[in-house]
Model the fold of this input.
Amino acid sequence: MSVSIFDTVRKLVLEKEMGEILFVSDFSHLNDDESVNKILSRLVHEGRLERISRGIYLKAKKTDFGSLIPSLDEIAHAIAKRDKVKIFPSGNTALNMLGLSTQVPMVAEYITTGSTRTVKVGKRKIVFSNSTPKNFEYKNELIHLIVVAMKKIGQKNISDEDIEVIQNLLSDRDSIENWKEDIQLAPVWIRKIIINLIENIEL
Done:
């Protein structure tokens, strides 16, 4: 390993903002991934970085209670940005974000325009599942999230309590812009429920 590569990587790492997530690919311009991996590992031992997954590092903010580790959602979006792909919460992750489930999932689930794969983060996981382009045509994030969550619950399992939570989420008119356009992308049973809820709110 040349001294110049070590100095270059170390300098670039020290210049990063505290709390920033780093990837080996951030140093691809050096054309020596093997050396970069070794250098980043050395910086982990020095306490300059923390390894949060294979090939993923963090310049952690330190507190009296230890290092501040990003949420799985923040890590997932950093990976998506690196890979230049779109992602969107799915499954139990979508339910949790909407308050339809109070349990914080150990597995963060996302649909993606990229490849299907799993990233281990300690004892937790981020699961990316490839999905059709249609699922990324929504303009309104809330409507999209509600549709994804309702799909996860299923038509036969959706409860009055779930409907009440969804109705409260839809009650803010500013948050449901473009809903008439987006609702056409949803399954028929979900479309009927959302239209009915919004029409009742608007009365």
Q: What stands out?
A: The chain has a mean pLDDT of 91.
